[in-house]
What we know:
The chain is of the alpha+beta class. It folds into 2 domains: 3-76, Arc Repressor Mutant, subunit A, CATH 1.10.10.10; 79-115, no CATH class. The chain has helices spanning 3-13, 16-27, 35-42, 46-58, 77-88, 100-107, 109-115; strands spanning 33-34, 62-67, 70-75. Strands 1-3-2 form a 3-stranded antiparallel β-sheet. α2 (16-27) crosses α4. The longest helix has 13 residues, at 46-58.
Amino acid sequence: MESLLAIDRLAALAQETRLQAFKVLVRHEPEGVAAGELARILNVPQNTLSSHLAILARAELVHHERHSRSIIYRANLAAVRELVFHLLSDCCNGKPELCSALIDEITGTQLTKECC
Length: 116
């Protein structure tokens, strides 16, 4: 992953409404959430949420698809995985065994059971 993409993704999440929206989308994986429902959950005007979702989409953190008259948004968990591994790529100054527990937790069943 290029550093500029990592910066874009981190910047997209560095705003309260966008972070909350992303967390809601993660909770609703794999079904996703309609844009109107997401606005209702977050108590945010739809046009404001639309701007936030566009920023998340440009950072490749969310996907959307049209279903009839609704647009369903989903978290791009692969993008988050790429970001985390980018952040950990130089872990422990060339001693990856020091980070193995953290990496195992991220990739292992423990996280899967807790988050999804």
